[in-house]
Design brief:
By secondary structure, the chain is of the alpha+beta class. It folds into three domains: 105 residues, no CATH class; 129 residues, Jelly Rolls (Sandwich); 70 residues, Phage tail protein beta-alpha-beta fold, CATH 3.55.50.30. It is built from eight helices and 18 strands. The protein has a 15-stranded mixed β-sheet that branches. A three-stranded mixed β-sheet has the order 15-18-17. A hairpin with a 2-residue loop joins β4 and β5. The chain is globular.
């Protein structure tokens, strides 16, 4: 691009990239209001933001606040060819987001189009595991974390979240606090399963929410609402981590496999871990982590200790 118009377009793209990173974890109501004012200031702004949503979904961009990634301006000189191809491939997605932005609060997309499940945790303590080919949009506003299921299956861990969780899936709304639960959206069918705690699902046609107790699951589709079975086969053993903490990886592995992995000292907890790992088989996992992170593995038969 060249000339004043080109430079202005580049700045709009850079602003859109910055706002997308910031809206994954807005710091205040003032910041959200500033974002919405930026959207309304120019028709090019929601279009550029929608393009950024599409590109970052295709590239699985990480939330800034989770991994200490500061919002950065887009590279000067225009989009690279690979980015242009990705944008063309997801133009329809961008178009959908463009019309939604005018009436939606500051939602940011998080997607998993890879072959393995993806785990992450937001700065407010909310844990998310996305199944393959799943996508959500999330916003934090007025003390409520809202998670909109765009498609696929998601495990939501609100046990370390200080505020309420609201999940939107199709026409259904799920409310939870201090709970671990799964939500899946496939076409018009919504399923919810509670692993720990209690959640409630609200249907616009129902007079009152339906509580889903620990160990129970329901599905809502064209035939109405009915009980179903818990799916114990997921998350799959192979999970993709992107700069997750070693403590987070160990916590997930200890819930899915045995023997437990323990860390020899607290300073190891924050070591970043990236890659696709088999978290159900803790002995091979401990050896793989040890080799990758230059740690020693001590196996006494009961626990696996990772240390220097």
């Amino acid at each position: 691009m060249s000339g004043p118009g080109g430079r202005n377009a580049e700045q709009v793209q850079a602003d859109a990239a910055s706002w997308h990173a910031r809206m994954l974890e807005p710091r205040s109501e003032t910041e959200v209001a500033a974002f919405e004012a930026w959207l309304a200031a120019d028709p090019a702004h929601p279009r550029a933001y929608a393009d950024m949503e599409a590109l970052t979904s295709a590239g699985a961009k990480l939330p800034r606040a989770d991994y200490d990634i500061a919002p950065a301006a887009a590279p000067r000189g225009g989009w690279r060819p690979v980015a242009a191809m990705a944008l063309a491939a997801v133009a329809l997605v961008a178009g959908v987001w463009a019309w939604q932005l005018a009436s939606s609060p500051a939602f940011a997309a998080v997607s998993n189009f890879g072959p393995a499940v993806r785990g992450l945790r937001f700065a407010d303590g909310t844990g998310i595991v996305l199944d393959a080919n799943s996508q959500i949009a999330t916003a934090l506003r007025s003390g409520i974390r809202t998670i909109r299921i765009v498609g696929g299956r998601v495990r939501i861990d609100g046990r370390q979240t200080s505020h309420a969780l609201r999940v939107e899936a199709g026409a259904q709304t799920i409310a939870a606090r201090s709970a671990l639960f799964d939500v899946a959206l496939e076409g018009a069918s919504v399923s919810v399963a509670t692993l720990q705690g209690s959640v409630a699902i609200s249907d616009p046609a129902a007079a009152a929410p339906t509580a889903i107790a620990q160990g129970d699951a329901v599905v809502v589709d064209g035939d109405g609402k009915r009980a179903t079975r818990l799916d114990g086969s997921w998350p799959a053993s192979r999970m993709r981590f992107e700069r997750a903490t070693l403590a987070r990886v160990v916590d997930i592995a200890n819930r899915l496999g045995n023997p437990d992995i323990v860390l020899a000292s607290p300073d190891l907890a924050s070591i970043p871990v990236s890659g696709v790992l088999d978290v159900r088989r803790t002995r091979p996992l401990a050896r793989k982590l040890g080799a990758a992170l230059d740690l020693q593995v001590r196996d006494d038969g009961a626990v696996l200790q990772l240390g220097r």
